[in-house]
Amino acid sequence: MPARIRIVVGFDGSADSWAAARFAAAEAAAGHGTVRLVHSLLDRVAYATLLPPDLPPDLTADGPAEAQRLLDLARAELAVACPGADVQTALVQRAPGAALVRVSRSADLVVLGRHGHGRAPAGGGFQRVHAGAVATHVMAYASCPVVVATAVDAETVRRPVVLGLDAAAPSAPAIACAFEAAARRGTSLRVCYVNAGRLGPRDHPQDDADARRLLSQALSGWRAAFPDVPVALDVLHGVDPAARLLDAAAAASLVVVGARERAGAPAPGPGGAVPDTLVRNATCPVAVVRTQRQPADHPTAVS
Asked: Which residue ranges does the record assign to the UspA domain (predicted)?
């Protein structure tokens, strides 16, 4: 685990991005680290809705000035809620997807809300961004794990971290992310493998005992590195791994899952059907971790 965790948040002032910012600040405080709120400039009219109604309006302020007021407000709130976090802000002109992929190169974690606001259309107001737009782009090309956060209460934070792991092909980056998260929270780690009972390659686990053996082998070094993290191994059954992991997520503070590498943009979702289903439907934050890094730049910027 890094001595000081570096977390980047995609913050656009929407309710979900506020939840992401609060999640990130709590993680940064627990990891004695920094959280950087990255805001992609919106049209000036947007800030009339995003800034609180009791904040006196500044009729002379332009878009960047209003954006900075929003960032200053967020930084002040997070500093009070999570005094152990070093909260920083950054106002950028790039599209949010491209901006977050760029800054992910020097981050340990990128945190996003499930939904956000798009750029204001010509007639004013907002365009609602579907859960797959910016999030899918960032999860596909970021240089670090990406968390899609939801609002959580104090009880949820104390729950175990759940790691969805393929016993036959365990993802070391996902294992590392899960152990680090559990250590920061001071919670246990529940490692879940879904045995769908299907025939597979020779090294694919065919029964529960085989699966547990493979999981124990994959986790042995990490257990030694994180001796204070209690670990439970669960072999679940069902033909739909995403559905079983969603069941496990109901009792989790965070779900961590690995994502398959793809040559182009992910389809149907960020790294496959299981991460996509979890990101869209889990009731707790979801961390998506790519097994191998790929070039961080991509010609298509998501706005």
From this structure: 6-148, 159-290
Q: What share of the chain is helix, strand, coil (3-state, %, to 5)?
A: 40, 20, 40
Distances (CA, A) of 229 to 26, 179, 232, 297: 19, 7, 10, 36
Q: How far apart are CA 148 and CA 138, in angstroms?
A: 10
Is CATH 3.40.50.12370 what the domain over 154-284 is classified as, yes or no?
Answer: yes
The predicted pLDDT at position 52 comes to 79
CB 247 within 8 A of CB 282: no
Q: What is the CATH number of domain 6-149?
A: 3.40.50.620
| CB count in 10 Å sphere of residue 232 | 11
Q: Among residues of the chain, what percentage have pLDDT more than 90?
A: 55
What's the CA gap between 54 and 76, in Å, rounded?
A: 16
The residues, any chain, with a CB within 8 Å of residue 169's CB and separated by 6 or more, are none
- What's the rounded Cα separation, in Å, for the pair 141 and 160? 28
Tell me the pLDDT tens digit for each residue of 248-285.
999 999 999 998 765 444 444 445 688 989 998 999 99
The distance of Cα 103 from the centroid of its chain, to the nearest Å, equals: 15
Q: What are phi and psi of 223, to 5 degrees?
A: -65, -40
| Numbered ranges of CATH 3.40.50.12370 in the chain | 154-284
Categorize the per-residue pLDDT at 130 as very low, low, confident or very high, splitting at 50, 70 and 90: very low
* Alpha carbon distance 27, 109 (integer Å): 10
Look-up: residue for tokens 């920094």?
34
